[in-house]
Amino acid sequence: MVFGPASRLGVSLFEETPCLELIPGRSQEEVETIIRAVYRQVLGNAYVMESERATIPESQFKSGALSVREFVRALAKSDAYRSRFFDTCPRYRFLELNFKHLLGRTPDGLEEMRVHSTILDTEGYEAEIDSYLDSDEYQNAYGENIVPYYRGYKTQPGQNMVGFTHMFALLRGASSSDFKGSLSGKSPVLNKYVIQETPVAVIPPSGGSVGDGWSFPDRQRGAKSVYNVASGDEGKVFRIEVTGYRTSAKNRVQKIRQSNQVYVVPFSRLSQEYQRIHKQGGVIASITAVN
What we know:
The chain is α+β, with helices and mostly antiparallel strands. The protein is built from twelve helices and four strands. The relative contact order is 0.11. Residues 1-7, 206-233 and 247-259 have low confidence and may be disordered.
């Protein structure tokens, strides 16, 4: 059952989707569903090309040689995971995503981050992955054959409010991606908040049903509406949220000083506006129909 206002924070699909467990006698179609769910969870909802698939572990899993936990382990140690979240990401981004992908929650605090950072330094990448999958917490939550799922947005015994709010900063709706789709890009989302044990504001994803439920409302975070629909425009109107304008190599002087901006455009000019934003180095946070 979806709970209170949190159902409007992008987690209703997770709440309404039952956990998946591999049980004896599963059909081939059900096994394929579990494989897709493991990819989605472990790779942070990223698009996976055929060449990136873990074909040998997949075959072993289908034959019954691997449990769900061991398939998760193989995928988390794969080149697809490592190239996305370790080779090109700062250390603390990698660690916070390991917690999210493998334990379904955020780090509890600075000390927990330090523990995993030490494992990474002294024992290496594979030992860091094993530390989650071989933990009592993983076994108690998922066992051998349940696909890991996001738990951190739910109230749980021993969970503090800080960790609860942190999960919403990492989990921005069922369609978000931890690779190219994240507004934070490769930068840590929680680093200073974990260190200081500071809660963060819980803000609905764009298009939420809350009145001001945008990623950055016009009057907050410095966002400014810089383009409006002309009175003669007809048809559906769209609200585009843009963040992260960057100076291009050819244009060292940044022409746009406002990093978060909102554009309101009719459908007839949506494609043109989309192309213009990308040419200027903006990152589109969302495109939402207004009417």
